[in-house]
Description:
Blueprint: H1 2-26, E1 28-32, E2 54-55, E3 58-62, E4 92-98, E5 107-112, E6 116-122, H2 123-129, H3 137-142, E7 147-159, E8 167-176, E9 181-188, E10 195-202
Antiparallel strand pairs: 1-4, 2-3, 3-6, 4-5, 5-7, 6-7, 7-8, 8-9, 9-10
Amino acid sequence: MHSRKSYLFVIGGALIMAANATIARANENLPFPGVTPGPPVYSTISPLAEEILRSGDWVGVAFYRDPACVPPSFNLLDGFDIPNSFSCTLTIQGFEISPPQGLAPVQVKGWGLGAVPIYFVSVQEYQSAIADRVLTITELRSLPSLKIGYASFFSLEIRPGFTTPPGLNITAMGVLQDGRRFQFQVVEGGPSSAPKHVKIAFW
């Protein structure tokens, strides 16, 4: 009887270890840059008009990659630019949580590398610029209201649209080129993809 109990204990322990190994494989943390090239996009700009990150009179656009590397003719409203975006220097680092043999991560978490570029433009100018469904980096930079800031603190969480619930969370603070400070915060999620809360403040 003792040997049978020991056998069952060993088998039970093996099953627990196997289950834990399966769970671990189902939640791989893949760091970027390194194991993965990071988000296949340049910025927070989305093809979906309802995902404009606006607060009051301002729209915020955070760049995950160096804006100077964005091809001048690329339509930022297209979002993904694979594989071209992978050759652009990241402004963030972090990791992707991916299932085994998954085609896309179920979650992305990132942190700024010290000076994450964030562009702020007026809502009116931004909406006029995207009315033709085309927005290039050149056009964005030409908007008269443009304010450029660099976030010394930047945290990011992305839950892609196929996850439940999808969402985007950003917390950023830094300094504008004119010397003023700024705060940029996005809290998004729930049954709708529309932002639940966006805050843009200058002082």
